Amino acid sequence: MPFACIFVPDFPAEALVRAEPELRSQALAVLEGKPPLQKVFALNEKARRAGIELGMSKLQVEACIQVLLRSRCPLQEAAAHAALLDCAQSFSPRVEDTAGDTLLLDLAGLESLFGPLPKIARDVARRASDLGIEASVAVAWDPNTAVLAARGFSGVTVIPEGEEADRLGGLPLDVLFAVFSAPAQKNDAERFLETLERWGVRNLRSLAALPEIAISERLGQEGVRLQQMARGRTSRTLVPFDAPLIFEEAVELEHPLVLLEPLAFLLQQMLDQLCTRLSARALAMQELRLQLALDSGCHATEDFIHAQPREEGPKTSAHATLFTRTLRLPVAMLDAKVFLKLLQLDLKAHPPGAPIMKIYLSAEPAQPRHSQNGLFLPASPVPEKLELTLARISRIVGENRVGSLELLDTHRPEAFHIQHFAPSESQVLKDSAFLTSADKTNVRKKRLVAPFSNSQGEPQKPYPEINQQSGTVTALRIFRPPLRATVALRDGMPGHIDCSRRKEVQGEINWLAGPWRSSGDWWEQEGWARDEWDIALPAEGGIALYRLVRDLLSGNWFVEGTYD
Amino acid sequence: MSSALLCADLALDNPFVFVPQEKPDLLRKRLPNLSKLAGVTLGSRLEIRGAPEIVLSGIPEIDMLSDGLPRGCLTEICGPVSSGRTSVLLAVIAAATRRQEICALVDTSDAFDPQSATSAGVDFKRLLWVRCCAPNSYVRTRNTNREDSSSHANNASLKAAALASENSRNERSESSVEQALRVTDLLLQSGGFGLVVIDLADVPFKTARRIPLTSWFRFRRAVEHTPTVLLVISQQSCAQTCASLLLGLNGIEKVFSMPAASTSDAPAHAQLLRGLSINAELLRSRLERKPVRSVHASFNTKMSWAG
Question: Which CATH number fits domain B57-306: 2.60.120.320, 3.30.460.10, 3.40.50.1980, 3.40.50.300?
């Protein structure tokens, strides 16, 4: 049964490079510890060539001017590890989370799906690279052999069955003991390593050549197990790990950000990573949550009203405040550029108001939407473009002034609210589902007939109506706010009107209809009661009809609108 | 070189040279090879744009008048206050939403009445409502309104208040129109809408007239070759030659009413408005390649409570 191992050398440094790709071309050392006792915890190959070693103090490293120093960032390591898991699970459902920098995949049966084993190994490495991680991938018929090969050889390695001992023979003994991570295991590993070095055993081939009984007598069963690993003859059960569907990216900044432009640059990288991870799992994004840890020591502007304390999540400093913005999308999308533009528009409308120290970006995954519409359904706006358009329109006309209407269940005038406009496909499909089969046949017949009716060169006929209304409804145009008016009564009815705000709404009332009395909510504090009159006033082209309202609670007269 | 070709070459340099009409075939073959005419399509080979697809407006009388509303074109409906423009508008939107099309209403004056739209059969799930009214001026107008209520003491102050409110209304209209034009640009660029309506009905004509003609040309170009119906309602025609179809509504012909006492316990003098009779006129149509006579039609509207 073939197994693949993904191993990321210098994982803490690689996690930092993933967030800042420009660091890949430079010597980088990762420091850990409290100042001033910081020591080198990880470093990349270029820093190693520059003479830096693990455990060196910050002062020693600073003597080498070519090396960049960064503090260890557990947030970015967690994000990189999650990305690695996404990469592995995009190929195999059985993945073992062996270590922070090592994953094992069960490749049984995947050859018929993804091709031969070398191709799978190359694809795994390529996908990891797409996620910003340069990893070594090894395929072998034994999990431990795959791990040793991935740790020992860089790039892609495929070890055929039966050649394990030959291929692993040249690896140093350090590779064998590198899998021990617990402190107690490390002590045992150091003891074994010291003993074997005293015996003159330098590589795995030497260890494999030793007599098994002698090893058992001197090193015990652990020694025999190590020798079996060196020979590539162990077998063990994979422990599958079901990674939760959490998609989060985080960046801790060296210097606080003040401008939105560099923030957009960072957001673009994070969104690219998130979209690649979601794409690897064949998922899309339904909700995007941006959290910015702000330096609360600085003065916040008045716009800083959306900051909310975070209840749980990544560690933040005691003086940081979290600024949260959430984008809820009507349909699941996977376009980093659209998300970036939406975030930019949102942040321009709601600036954080203080320097940014950390950036957290999390995505709520969802199944990708089906892009194919019905053959007989009219075209509708592309959801991604529509979201951008709505965000831009909101910037022009203001929030809550664009969207679709929803009427409230009351007779109170102006009882509606505006909700986010989302003409989803499900709505269209739902409506078509409401039609009976006879209706559907009828509609299709009508729609099929219409386009072919211009065969004789006549203008194309319109689509027939599905449900033609019996008559046209007289519309009312609302004056928002209503116009205050002075009304003179004659025989208890309005006879003359004077409206200071509109010169055309004044004069003798030619004709009137009403009153139409209504009231409601009298059981609450916001009760209302009114008399409505429909009045005709002389206008330029003839007459103009208005709706005149008397508020019975205050006794004031208002012109509410005009019939048009 | 034949004499005709020689004459053609000469004519390019000097337009006053007479070109004889002999051997036209040779001349036609030769002309495109001349460097000065490279890229110029012969008039006889220009493609004639096909007749646009027509959709129903939702009012049979209007459809009889104009054959419906053309897709990919700008249609303008103009008329004075209470001439039935908004009733036609709601009927068009309702018809479009019944066709399952996505519609957008750019409401320059924030005058859209949801109750009327519900009665007309508009599906709100498919209607994007953009309320273009500057909030600042909205607040300012409300403040003015409060001040007005306490300043009715004499006619002079009344006239001054009316003048001030008229000015503020004009300013508000200008900023709203500016917003409406920007929003319309975005909507047309976004694409996918079956109907985009710009409601300029409450915008004073002198403000609407200030909309640059280039804006209308841009809108017309944006909807060209798309299935979008771009509809503008206004007091007077402001899109001018950019409108492929211009309908005029001439105001109320007749008001239908009935005594409310016959149907309810209302007082004997009470009346109930039941509907209006509207006169419409086809002012201009570019859809047919023949001069259009002035054609009139009348249709009735009913109030939502008239059943």
Answer: 3.40.50.300
